[in-house]
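My main concern about presentation is that the manuscript never shows what a single data entry looks like. Each protein is reduced to its one-letter sequence and a matching series of backbone shape codes. For the editor and my fellow referees, an illustration may be useful. For illustration, here is how one protein appears when written out as sequence plus structure tokens:
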Amino acid sequence: MTLLQLKYIVKIVECGSMNEASHELYVSQPALSSSVKELENELHIEIFTRSSQGIALTVDGAEFLTYARQVLDQAALLEERYKNAKPRKQLCAVSTQHYMFAVEAFVEMINSTKSDEYEFTIRETRTKDIITQVANMLSEIGILYLSDFNKDVIGKLLREKHLEFHPLFRAPLHVFIARSNPLAAKRKLTMDDLKPYPFIQYEQGEDGSFYFAEEAVWPEHSPKQINVTDRATILNFIIGLNGYTVCTGIDNGDLNNEKIVTVPLESDETMLLGWISNERAKLSHAAETYLAKLREVVATHGYTLIDA
């Protein structure tokens, strides 16, 4: 079945006769009749009844005509959208774990955009959702980390979904704590130091396996634990509840530096930050720009790029 055959059916109905339709379509009547017959044979229905008085739609034909018009309307919308000489607006969607450097780069990308029209999306979301959204092409880029603990499980999931992981930089572990916290003056912290304080982590939903946790390490036993879903809440809880969370250590103006500090965490574990893409898709110009800005932001914060 082709769009041309659908156009033939609609035109025949509009004209009321095969002969008149053939003239308007600049197609010979035998060729038009043959095309309709091929379609009927393919679909195993009769679209028209033929008699000495002319042609008429069958019940199946009337139903088919409704669907044919819908398809042709959608095709017309596609032509209008993509054949229009006006430059198309730029599109880009990014899914990321809760990293301020990812948002900072997104702002830089938008500020560098010279297009009069664009539609950009950034989703700070759960680890498994990031993978799913890039696999389903809802996002072009996903940002997450690998560690010695999670790399086998995350790597297997990425391969199954035809996704590629591109290393960006490696970060030693840090913690975010309130500047008023007694531990804020220490040059380095241990998990034992943090035991008296509430541990705050990003909630991972029903698939909340440790392998999907945004925190590369966590206390073996934490009598005080808070699960949150967004970055603003976690920062407020660090300040208001004297809690802490494990992070990369990269901060920016959003962090409210007069109230929160980052302190290195004593750990053999590190976070390999990177971005994932769908191996079946080609990145848009906007996505490429975002990656360039992401590298610039990371370098500005003093980290050595892996894939620069």
Q: What stands out?
A: The mean pLDDT is 88. The first helix runs from residue 3 to 15. The CA atoms of residues 136 and 278 lie 9 Å apart. Residues 3-83 form a domain with the Arc Repressor Mutant, subunit A fold (CATH 1.10.10.10).
